[in-house]
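Tokens as discussed.
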């Protein structure tokens, strides 16, 4: 049996890449009120009572400290036709919102135009987890706003739901 020290990160990423995940954009505002955001594929519901969700940003993220300081965020569930939105928010530095349209949602955090759904949250807890954080958010408001297929991430690439 292997131990965790025997498993290299490339192998770990490759094997877990066989599990599809949805793609979301976590958005917030900086101290000057400007929009900030990051693309995440590690987002999940946590609890119905109280309503809680979680996402897992890397400890190296330059955006997450801004979100943590603000204490609120909005999860935007990206649609299959929003791969470019995901790519814009996945880069480090620059004006990620230069070509993105959005409206202020709960707490003033950006709700991106064209998303499948959005979930406005207040940071409930932040837990250390290896090279990531586990961020638990209390859901303050939410809406499903578009009947479109979600954007999926699988084996290091973007996909969408195939019709049956």
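Sequence:
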């Amino acid at each position: 049996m292997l131990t965790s020290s025997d498993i290299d990160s490339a192998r770990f990423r490759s094997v877990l890449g066989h599990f599809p995940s949805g793609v979301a954009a976590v958005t917030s505002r900086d101290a000057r009120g400007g929009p900030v955001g990051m693309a995440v594929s590690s987002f999940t519901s946590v609890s119905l009572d109280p309503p809680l969700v979680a996402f897992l940003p890397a400890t190296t993220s330059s955006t997450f400290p801004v979100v943590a300081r603000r204490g609120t965020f909005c999860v935007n569930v990206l649609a299959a036709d929003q791969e470019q939105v995901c790519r814009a928010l996945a880069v480090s530095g620059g004006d990620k919102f230069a070509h993105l349209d959005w409206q202020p949602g709960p707490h003033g955090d950006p709700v991106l135009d064209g998303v499948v759904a959005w979930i406005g949250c207040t940071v409930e807890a932040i837990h250390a987890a290896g090279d990531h954080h586990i961020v638990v958010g209390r859901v303050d408001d939410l809406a499903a706003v578009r009947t479109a297929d979600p954007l999926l991430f699988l084996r290091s690439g973007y996909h969408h739901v195939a019709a049956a």
